[in-house]
Design goal:
Strand order of the largest sheet: 2-1-7-6-5-4-3
Order of helices and strands: HHHHHHHEHHHEHEEEEE
Structural class: alpha+beta
Strand content: 15-25%
Distance between the termini: 131 Å
Mean pLDDT: 82
Largest sheet: 7 strands, mixed
């Protein structure tokens, strides 16, 4: 083999070694990169999944349980704001009722305005209740003599008002039947949908949610047994 041949052979050998070295470096680099990606993936904290309670809260629709022929008219009369169906759901029941323009007389009765010796606001806001709430037209149908008596007889007014309140929040699917009231006697809920009644009063719009109560607007003032 002459010198020129040996030189070409040696050059080819060095070129081969260089290519093998580059391939090895590339392989090592890819492996390191893959390892780094796996490490990053493993170490990145997973986003917390919402709890079941949280998911229910996000999906809660204040209008989901409404029953009664007057719900549409109520929504049209009070489409937004604190007294609306959605607005009432964010406040405790006595506060929510005070913002509802259909419940002004009831609000005055439970807050000490009708009779200064009867103030049930803290009681109503302090626990979970189902409230049968007479609308203003219901109180307008009560004779003036009875209203005068209620404005001076604290015990009687307290008895009448607490007869409209049942412990615990009862949705329309659970409210039908007899229930002991805070006053001590029982009320009976019958019917369903647009034909639901509480004793002899018709439900105008029921299943209205507040922060601590389920409200059923009714068209008559309920009177406990005397």
């Amino acid at each position: 083999m002459n010198v020129r041949t040996r030189t070409r052979t040696a050059a080819a050998g060095f070129a081969t070694l260089a290519l093998l070295g580059l391939a090895a470096c590339s392989s090592d680099s890819d492996a390191a990169g893959s390892s780094s990606e796996q490490s990053t993936t493993q170490e990145s904290p997973a986003e917390p999944e919402p709890t079941e309670e949280g998911a229910e809260d996000m999906e809660m629709d204040p209008a989901a349980n409404l029953v009664g022929p007057g719900c549409e008219a109520y929504a049209e009369e009070v489409p937004e704001g604190a007294g609306s169906i959605t607005g009432m759901s964010t406040d405790p029941v006595a506060v929510a009722a005070s913002n509802n323009p259909m419940l002004t007389t009831l609000t005055s009765a439970v807050s000490g305005e009708l009779n200064p010796d009867v103030d049930l606001v803290d009681t109503l806001n302090g626990d979970e209740f189902t409230v049968f709430a007479p609308v203003d037209d219901a109180f307008a149908a009560v004779d003036e003599k009875t209203l005068d008596t209620l404005s001076t007889d604290a015990d009687l007014l307290t008895s009448v008002l607490t007869y409209h309140v049942v412990p615990g929040q009862l949705l329309p699917e659970d409210v039908v039947g007899e229930h002991e009231t805070v006053q001590g006697d029982t009320v009976e809920v019958t019917g369903s949908g647009d034909e639901m009644k509480v004793d002899d009063a018709n439900v105008v719009c029921g299943g209205v949610m507040t922060q601590n109560a389920t409200v059923y607007l009714v068209d008559s003032v309920l009177m406990p047994p005397m």
